[in-house]
Design brief:
0% strand; mainly alpha
Length: 209
């Protein structure tokens, strides 16, 4: 009888495989990356990989679902302060602060483009991407509704569409970082803030560059 493997061990091994997959996919496209490549990057055997993920497809879906460049921000993470601009700044800070200063997260931002491309042809990956984006999208929609009710945002805005537009600006940062290199994320976040809430009396924060 083989010894029982603890949940802690299985979770750690699973994360090891996911890290290996991200590493392998950061140097080659999905269709050129085999399970053998992923296993080698994760420093496990292919047999071990299949013990945790029944197929390459299942592994890709999990990677798309756990895309860490779209933070799972919920309402509890954005306390009401009675000031629309400050609340939105808090949201942007949770999304952008230090994220592009992390080489690992910047690499995953480039991988996001891989998931988007794959999602165009794969319903399972599309659904996984929806799941990864839903917490933040829902938070933004609720935030828009609240400030419409208080009269600070135009009531003609459709809340979900407004949330999707904000989300698009946020996700667009990945594209610029992947294609153009380092993005001045402080200036980018400030631009998103001004586009939504207007200039008011806020000063432009210092550039990160």
């Amino acid at each position: 009888m083989s010894p029982k493997v603890s949940d802690q061990y299985r979770n750690a091994k699973r994360e090891q495989i996911l890290r290996g997959a991200r590493e392998a996919l950061s140097v080659a496209p999905i269709n050129e990356t085999s399970t053998a490549d992923i296993a080698a990057a994760a420093e496990v055997s292919e047999g071990t990989l299949y013990n945790y993920f029944p197929s390459k497809q299942a592994l890709l879906v999990e990677l798309a679902r756990s895309d860490r460049t779209t933070p799972a921000i919920g309402q509890a993470d954005v306390p009401e302060q009675g000031n629309m601009q400050q609340e939105f700044r808090d949201i942007l800070a949770k999304i952008f602060d230090e994220r592009l200063d992390s080489p690992e997260l910047r690499a995953e931002g480039r991988l996001s483009l891989t998931w988007w491309q794959a999602a165009a042809h794969d319903e399972d990956i599309r659904q996984a991407q929806r799941e990864s984006m839903e917490p933040l999208l829902s938070t933004l929609e609720i935030w828009v509704r609240r400030w419409q009710q208080r009269g600070d945002l135009d009531r003609r805005l459709h809340p979900l569409s407004a949330a999707q537009a904000i989300m698009s600006l946020i996700l667009g940062l990945r594209i610029f970082d992947a294609i153009d290199g380092h993005v001045d994320w402080i200036a980018y976040a400030h631009a998103v803030e001004i586009l939504l809430t207007g200039p008011h009396t806020l000063d432009r924060p210092e550039s990160s560059q």
